[in-house]
């Protein structure tokens, strides 16, 4: 399998908080989820960096969460978030940044 490296154009280290729903963003050859993203109610998508906290979000697919982390913009226009802290939001699916 060929893997591509996507360059990041923004290197800011400021932490941001976003709220949204965790959804699958990629699958392996056996149909298992191998990447997740956060979809906000502003129709923004943030791919989750697979660090320790990011990997825990695989257990929260279709859950509303509030994430705090470092957001970067890739050259292909997509955004990533390296999660530093997260909280599961219960009692609704309202999601916002």
Question: What distinguishing features does this structure have?
Answer:
about 100 residues, mainly beta, OB fold (Dihydrolipoamide Acetyltransferase, E2P), five-stranded mixed barrel, 1 helix, about 45% strand, globular
Question: Care to describe what's here?
Answer:
The protein has one helix and five strands, in the order βββαββ. Strands 1-2-3-5-4 form a five-stranded mixed beta barrel. The protein has one helix spanning 52-56; strands at 15-27, 33-39, 45-48, 64-73, 79-89. The chain is mainly beta and 97 residues long. 5% of the residues lie in helices and 46% in strands. A hairpin with a 5-residue loop joins strand 1 and strand 2. It has a single domain (15-89), classed as OB fold (Dihydrolipoamide Acetyltransferase, E2P) (Beta Barrel), CATH 2.40.50. The N and C termini lie far apart (35 Å).
CATH topology: OB fold (Dihydrolipoamide Acetyltransferase, E2P)
Q: Mean pLDDT score, rounded?
A: 86
Broad shape: globular
- Output the CATH homologous superfamily: Nucleic acid-binding proteins
- The appropriate CATH architecture is Beta Barrel
Number of strands: 5
Which CATH top level class fits? Mainly Beta
Query: How much helix, percentage-wise, in residues?
Result: under 10%
Instruction: Please describe the biggest sheet, giving its number of strands, its sense, and whether it closes into a barrel.
Output: 5 strands, mixed, barrel
* Number of separate domains: 1
Beta-sheet strand percentage? over 45%
């Amino acid at each position: 399998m060929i893997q591509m490296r996507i360059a990041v154009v923004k290197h800011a280290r400021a932490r941001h908080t976003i709220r949204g729903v965790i959804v699958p963003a990629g699958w392996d050859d056996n149909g298992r989820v191998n990447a997740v993203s956060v979809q906000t109610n502003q129709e923004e998508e943030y791919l989750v960096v697979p660090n320790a906290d990011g990997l825990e979000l695989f257990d929260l697919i279709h859950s509303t969460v509030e994430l705090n982390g470092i957001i970067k913009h890739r050259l292909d226009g997509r955004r990533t978030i390296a999660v530093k802290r997260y909280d599961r939001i219960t009692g609704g699916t309202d999601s916002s940044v």
